[in-house]
Specification:
Largest sheet: 2 strands, antiparallel
Number of helices: 20
Strand order of the largest sheet: 1-2
Strand content: under 5%
Amino acid sequence: MKTNDILSEKQKLILELLKSNNIDKLKDFINSLKTPLYFLNSTNFDLLTLALSLNCTFYIIKLIYNRCNYKTLNYVVKDIYHLYDMSNHKDETIVNYQNSLEVLMDSNNNVKSPLLVSLEFSDFQSVEFLINKGADMYFKINGKYILEILREENLLTMRKLNFLLKNGFSLKKFKIERLSNFEFKYIKKCLENFVFDINFIKYLLNLYKNKAGISKRKFNHRVNNEINKIEIPMELYLKYLDRKDYKKVEYLYKYYEYAINENETIIINKKLKIVELIKNNNNLKLETFLKNNNYILHCLYSSKSEILNLINEYNVSSDIVDILRNVHVT
């Protein structure tokens, strides 16, 4: 049964007015009501979420917010009525979104919040308005953060993430572990926004402006404090190692190595890998492995002599010997 069948007459009327996006007719309708506008809202029908979903003008969004007397914006609606027919929607992206709605509805039980809907439809003016009115970027829906839901729906973009970061979203409240299934560009962006953030930049600019001196020790201490703000989970390293995505491992290790608590696991695994390649006389794979892991070789072996000891331990080919002799370890 379509949702229109279970709507009250007044709900059907205002639904049609919202679809027409006519604020004057909407105001006339609201003024004709004998009861407050918010009486039309229910657990399965919410005017604000509905207006956002129908891409109503910002003036209509504000009108509904003001007239419905919302005590909080951190709530969910179980059904979004307009989603059953969006074939006439002016935004092609939204029309394409309509085609996959059944899958999305199953994935999150079609539960929405105002902020989630405004982000889904890239309505950044409304997103900012809702955040300023108290919409929580960390509000969970069915145990998932809004950012996670956007990713699941394939509706997350760098522009949306940048907008949230600009408005205060940070890894301080959103644990990096929850980003493990995100594309790396989103992980990198969140890290770079959190570590060496605007406060750190202001600190440096203030030093420059006031021509204030700072000792190397104090400066390094400040830098280390920034790096230690984040702890990179081991699963993130192992994930990229399993995929042989060494550039991402190198990025995480290079910039956040002070925050690794369990890097011994990585070192041990890589040592075992080198031994395996040497034993098997696999010179091509060994050469590639050493090249991809050049940034961490100083941790794998403390000196070149330690590497050369492997030559004596295994009956290796001359090619392997040459490769190991050329390893750049002090």
